[in-house]
Amino acid sequence: MLKVGVFGVGHLGKFHLNNWKEMDNVELVGFYDPNDAMAADVSARYNLKRFDNPLDLIRQIDAADIVAPTNFHFELCQLAIRNGKHVFVEKPLANTMEEARELVKLVKESNIKMQVGHVERFNPAFLATKNLALNPMFIEVHRLAEFNARGTEVSVILDLMIHDIDIILSMVQSGVKHISSSGVAVMTDTPDIANVRIEFHNGCVANLTSSRISLKKMRKMRIFQKDAYVGIDFLEKKTEVIRMKSDEAAPGAFEFDLETPKGKKTIQVMNPESPTVNAIRLELESFRDAIQNNTRTVVSETDGFSAMEVAHQILHKIAHNTINS
Predict the structure, then answer these.
(1) Fewest beta carbons less than 10 Å away: which of 75, 96, 258, 307?
(2) How far, in Å, CA of 95 to CA of 67, rounded?
């Protein structure tokens, strides 16, 4: 039985509490949150013990689930790791690159598992691509959200775009060659809207646009590769594949012929079935399983570090452009 404690029971923290309570082979020991009013409500609603000191909770558990604001990630993570506890921490991994680098070092020196909460890896629309041979050469991403004060302690790059950075890095598997970016702070003191172009050493190019001041929501990724297009709608949880007909069986595919400069080609249009899953539940279950089976976490601390590193390069470019404009 894995003993778990939750650190931070705000909006997202409550989702985590709900999922932990329903999970097999897990005992939810209690939670820590410095907000007295919120803590009293959660304690009563969930019939769960509140700990007044994070260390007191850490001493009672096997794994810490850290859902606190980003500026508290390092303090809580390092406290758990130094006490030999496994750690799940929401994205981004830490508030600064120095903190992130230290956490990676601590995990490496310890015998614990760490997972970073890049939940889009568990989105049904992305899971539907797992049997596809993805070799992207051009990627276009739009992640737009309505303004919400929650999460604005960090820029839109670390709040929203980092989801797509992580997904792209997991697919492309190549080093970053060059980054160009622009961003504007509209409602907060950090960029609220940004456009980024990432060029990889293998020739792949990714264009990303993220905004948290939009009038509509959108979370779409379009992947172009030789003989195929893959569209992933993270919001609607739908996936579309358009490709040249191959020898592989494609059940349920719609086919039509298209005249091209190279002659007539048969095109297949498919909508791979998206699994019916709760993404948050699935990522927490995968963390539990990695601990109990002693396997690598799906989104490790090094994955979280890599996504942060690219995000901070983007922020540096934006800051440089702002100073020189």
Answers:
(1) 258
(2) 13
Contacts of 98 (CB under 8 A, 6+ apart): none
| CA-CA-CA-CA torsion sign (248, 224, 175, 158) | negative
If one looks up domain 121-279+310-323 in CATH, what number appears?
3.30.360.10
Q: Which residues contact 135 (CB under 8 A, 6 or more apart)?
A: 225, 226
Contact 70, 153 (CB under 8 A): yes
Rg (CA), the chain: 21
| Site of tokens 């922020």 | 315
> What's the rounded Cα separation, in Å, for the pair 217 and 207?
18
The confidence score (pLDDT) of residue 262 equals 65
* pLDDT tens-digit series, residues 19-64: 999 999 999 999 999 999 999 999 999 999 999 999 999 999 999 9
What is the widest separation between alpha-carbon atoms in the chain? Answer: 72
Fold of 2-112: Rossmann fold (3.40.50)
Same fold, 2-112 and 121-279+310-323: no
Domain ranges, ordered by start, for the chain: 2-112, 121-279+310-323
Instruction: Looking at 129-249, list the stretches that DSSP marks H as alpha helix, in order from N- to C-terminal side.
Output: 156, 162-172
Using CA atoms, how far residue 249 sits from 39, 206, 246, 270, in Å, is 54, 30, 8, 11
Q: Which tokens sit at 254? A: 């719609």
Q: CA angle at residue 53 from 52 to 58, to 5 degrees?
A: 120
Question: Does the pTM of the predicted model rise above 0.85?
Answer: yes
CA distance 129 to 167: 12
